[in-house]
Every structure is written in structure tokens, then in C-alpha cells.
Amino acid sequence: MHIRDIGIGAEPPGFNSRLSALEKMLDDYAGFGFRLVELDPAWFGVIIAGELRTPQVERIVGVLRNFDLRYSVHGLERLNLAYDPRHELCRAIMLAQIEFCRRVGAHTLVYHSGLQALGDVGRSARLSLLTDEELAEGAAREIGFDYLDAVSEAAPWVRHLHVNDNFGILDRGIDSEIDRWAFGEADVHLPPGWGRIPYPDVFARLPDYQGDLILEIKAGFYDHLPEVLADMRERLAGSGAKGGETSQSR
Question: What is the pLDDT along the chain (250 residues), one digit of tens a residue?
Fold first, then answer.
């Protein structure tokens, strides 16, 4: 692996979207030793009904210019260009996100799939992510899912890493991620090492990866970020990964 920078997914404590909170957060991140921050435009209300609010973006850019940081952008989690019937609106939102990237100087835009099927299950529009026939077919094959094999299979196409930890336990219906922490369920965005993801084995399956590594850690663990960054540097060094030291000095 060759890690250009270890970055942090920006998570304003208390979901505070004021520019003063952004400035304080970026100052903290820089002080912790990060040199790459992944921004989420949804927090700042810069895209409204598919249009980019240019004045607000320029105010954000004015804050970002005060820091010697690189930026990437985490796009909206429910944007689905493939299946959402509001295709033109979704296309406009995507173009607005791309323009936001250009204005803040971001090199990467993360695009989620939209998770349409999960939303249908949550609204009880369907009982499961798969049809009864698909479930029966999978059960008949009796092929267990191997996490590390899946990492190896995906490795040739991986261009951007989001890293956190969990316990590999499916969500049993608790909506609040904060409440799920106590139960250790679902995608809880814990610091690496707090859960069960075998990161030494994961990194070993990504020998040709070249790019950034973004720590996606929730604001509830904000005070732990310096030790999380130090721990990830040690983990990468132990795996033989190159780079990453650029997060300490530039």
C-alpha cells in the first residue's frame, strides 16, 4: 500500500453548521496532525432543490483558505442516479456537488449508491433486501460470505478508503447510531481497534492501493482523534505501507 495522507471525515460536534464551528473544527484537526479533511456539503445547506448556493459556498471557501489542508468531499448518502425517478433533480444535485468540489479545491467526491432497497425495507415497503426466491437460492448454495475474500476481490477497483470499526453485528431496529454503540450493532463508526475488523489482514489484501485513507469517526469520539491518528500510523507502518507520514509534515 502507498497512503498519500491519513485524513478525517469532518463531523461537527453537535451537528453545528455555523462557520465559526467549521473554523474551530478545522483548527482542531490541523492541531491533531491531520492534513486532509473530508467535507460534507449537506451540513452547510449549500445545495437547495438541486442548486448550489454560491454565496454560502464562498463563505465556506473563505474559512478553508485559512488552513494548510487538502480536502475531499463526501456526497449525499441518498443520491441515486440509477433508480430514483427524480432523475433530472438527482443529476442537478450531482452537478452541484461536483461544482462544490471545484470551488473548495477537493480532489475526490465520494458517491454513495443511494441504498434504495434499504430505505424500502425501513418503510416496510418490502420485507427484505432480497426476494423469497433470491433468499432460497442463496440458502441452497450454502456458500458462506468471507469478508477478507471480498476485500481481495474488490482490491483492483479501490481508489479511496474509508476506515472505521464495528462488530459485524446486523442492526436489529435501533434507529439512532448513538444508541447502537451500547449494543455494538451495525455501522457504528468506531475508531479502528475498538471493534472486530482485522485491519492487518485487510491491509495485506490491498498491496497495490495508492491513495488516501479517511478515518470516518463519529463526533462522539472527537476527543480520541489524536490517539486514533497515531494508532493508524502505527498500524500502517506495521503492515509495511508506505506514505502516510505526510500527515505529520508537509
Answer: 999 999 999 987 776 778 999 999 999 999 999 999 999 998 889 999 999 999 999 999 999 999 999 999 999 988 988 888 899 999 999 999 999 999 999 999 999 876 655 555 555 555 555 667 766 776 676 568 899 999 999 999 999 999 999 999 887 777 788 889 999 998 899 999 999 999 999 999 999 999 999 999 998 999 999 999 999 999 999 999 988 754 443 4
From CA 53, how far away is CA 59, in angstroms rounded? 10
Q: Are strands 210-215 and 161-163 parallel, antiparallel or unpaired?
A: parallel
What span, in angstroms and rounded, lies between the C-alpha atoms of 237 and 214? 16
Say how many domains are in the chain: 1
- The answer to whether the beta carbons of residues 72 and 98 sit under 8 Å apart is no
Show the DSSP H helices in 142-224 as ranges. 147-154, 177-183, 199-204
Task: Give me the helices (H) in 130-189, please.
Answer: 132-141, 147-154, 177-183
Q: What is the CATH number of the domain that holds 189?
A: 3.20.20.150
Read off the amino acid at residue 137: E
The Cα–Cα gap between 69 and 37 comes to 7
CA 174, 179, 183, 188 torsion-angle sign = positive
Tell me the β-bridge partners of 9. Answer: 38
End-to-end alpha carbon distance in the chain: 20
Asked if residues 173 and 121 have their Cβ atoms less than 8 Å apart, the reply is no
- With 0.85 as the threshold, say if the pTM is over it: yes
- Give the domain range for residue 119: 2-247
With the C-alpha atoms ordered 149, 76, 41, 185, is the resulting torsion angle positive or negative? Answer: negative
